[in-house]
Design a protein that fits this description.
The chain is built from 12 helices and 12 strands. By secondary structure, the chain is α+β, with helices and mostly antiparallel strands. It folds into 2 domains: 232 residues, Orthogonal Bundle (Transferase(Phosphotransferase), domain 1); 144 residues, Phosphorylase Kinase, domain 1 (2-Layer Sandwich), CATH 3.30.200.20. The chain has a 6-stranded mixed beta sheet with strand order 1-5-6-4-3-2, with helices on both faces. α1 packs antiparallel against α12, α2 runs antiparallel to α3 and α11 packs antiparallel against α12. The longest helix is centred in the middle third of the chain and has 19 residues. The protein binds adenosine-5'-triphosphate and magnesium ion. Magnesium ion binds next to loops.
Length: 461
């Protein structure tokens, strides 16, 4: 019996929305896309870092003002900030277009709530950017723990001017986090655009990232318990739901594009907060079904159709959610070349297991030591399999995923039997469960494919 047959009751809601699961779920294939730098070693056969277009790399003419020549603006206005940041950028026209698109999301709230810090203030807060106050380092640059004069604990992310990520991501992050507010998104306290410094100041998340608690843990580690894992998945899904569902806030959908374990930060109560909005993109509006962009994201997490065509939809994020949820269930990293060759790719490893109920338990993280509800495991695997379907149109919306996770975590009770649509214990003939399993992943590496032919609204930077 396939995984989707096992997900009843709460998942019926999900299935009832016309997103019935697919048998192969997770055929996924090697969503081989440019990968972001993380502090973890990259897979050997994957690019080590996000492959940014060359013009995303540091430019000599990009903000090379003399250090200390001017202090950051105190003008709490996004438009002024944009002017400051893009003014002398070599890609200023493109950066302005990107900024205008984001600012157009919600003109009424286009005010900076984040505070402008000077370099001196952040240097003081982080003890002079000491190595021992470093929390980690990603593609943007190092992240330091700090404390502001008023006692607020912060994480200061410093743009590495020699690094691969740049002005545009700084700008997008500040704009997006100024316009988007939700308990499941990290709060941007401020930024520093003082002279040629570019820094982001976030609320400090005492438990670090989900990656820290989930992946590459020693066998003796206790790891996260099942209930905690499901709550983290639920919180992260709610964050995505807020971004995708324009009815929850003014403006068009926002596609996050970088959903992965290291970008899910955990507060002191292990509540999930999405971070890193530098790759976020305003989604399609009106009759548009997708936006065409350069393929950006992280190796392994990126939806296959996006990696192949550059056509971005909210379903790309749903696929990434399916990958992370599978990591949460299995404790396995999506790409892990330290494992035997046939286990390098988690989605490929899971595909045959999704089809056989007898093998479901093989997928539970050994660190759980069997402490999970069997039905809950089946349901969680079903959600992940549905999100990982190769056919993006067969994936559930993130709102449906949230509903299923609410049920799984006990937030929502199943509707009484009389109101329930009848569960389908055996697949109906037209049900995608009966479709043939996903074809084996294409060996073609999307990175080697020619760029999308369609007009790119991300063509530079
Ligand atoms: N607000 C925060 N509070 C506490 N720790 C944080 C915060 N932001 C980032 N970190 C820590 O810094 C690390 C590096 O974060 P960063 O987002 O720069 O890189 P990454 O997510 O690992 O990689 P990538 O650049 O590909 O997103 C995180 O894994 C996390 O441990
Ligand atoms: Mg990150």
């Amino acid at each position: 019996m396939g995984i989707l047959c096992c997900f009843q009751s709460g998942a019926d809601k999900l299935l009832d929305h016309g997103h019935g699961g697919g048998g192969g779920g997770g055929g996924g294939g090697p969503a081989a896309v440019p990968s972001s730098t993380t502090k973890k070693p990259p897979p050997r056969d994957a690019p080590a870092v996000t492959v940014r277009p060359p013009n995303l790399l540091r430019r000599d003419d990009d903000h090379q003002e003399e250090e200390g020549a001017r202090s950051s603006s105190n003008n709490n206005n996004l438009a002024t900030l944009v002017d400051e940041i893009v003014a002398e950028s070599a890609t200023h026209q493109h950066n302005r277009r990107v900024a205008d698109e984001i600012l157009g999301m919600n003109k009424e709230e286009a005010a900076v709530t984040a505070r402008a810090f000077t370099f001196a203030e952040l240097s003081e807060a982080s003890g002079g950017f000491r190595v021992d106050s470093m929390l980690g380092e990603g593609g943007f640059g190092p992240v330091y723990r700090g404390r502001l004069r008023d006692g607020t604990e912060v994480a200061v992310k410093q743009l590495d001017r020699n690094g691969l990520q740049g002005t545009r991501e700084f700008l997008v992050e500040v704009l997006m986090l100024s316009l988007l507010k939700h308990p499941q998104l990290v709060t941007l306290i401020g930024y520093c655009a003082d002279a040629n410094h570019r820094m982001l100041v976030y609320e400090f998340m005492p438990q670090g990232s989900l990656e820290d608690h989930l992946l590459d843990l020693p066998p003796s580690s206790r790891g996260l318990d099942w209930a905690m894992r499901m709550r983290i998945a639920q919180g992260a899904a709610r964050g995505l739901e807020y971004l995708h569902d324009a009815s929850r806030r003014p403006g068009p959908p926002v596609i996050y594009r970088d959903f992965k374990a290291s970008n899910i930060l955990l507060d002191g109560c292990f509540r999930a907060h999405l971070s890193d909005f530098g790759l976020a993109k305003v989604g399609p509006v009106g009759d548009k079904t997708h936006v065409s962009t350069r393929v950006m994201g992280t190796y392994g997490y990126c939806a296959p159709e996006y990696a192949l065509t550059g056509k971005l939809t909210t379903m790309s994020d749903v696929y990434s959610f399916g990958v992370v949820f599978l990591e949460i269930i299995t404790g396995r990293r999506v790409i892990d070349t330290s494992r035997p060759r046939d286990e390098h790719n988690l989605v490929q490893w899971a595909a045959p297991r999704f089809k056989s109920k007898k093998r479901f338990r093989e997928m539970a993280d050994p660190l759980l030591r069997g402490a999970y509800p069997t039905k809950g495991l089946y349901q969680a695997l079903a959600i992940s399999a549905m999100c990982l379907q190769e056919d993006a149109t067969m994936r559930p919306s993130i709102a449906d995923v949230v509903t299923a996770l609410d049920y799984l975590t006990g937030v929502a009770k199943p509707s009484p039997p009389s109101q329930q649509q009848s569960p389908s214990p055996s697949p109906s003939p037209t049900h995608p469960q009966q479709q043939s399993p996903s074809p084996s992943p294409s060996p073609t590496h999307p990175q080697q494919q020619s760029p999308p032919k369609e007009e790119e609204d991300d063509a530079t930077d």
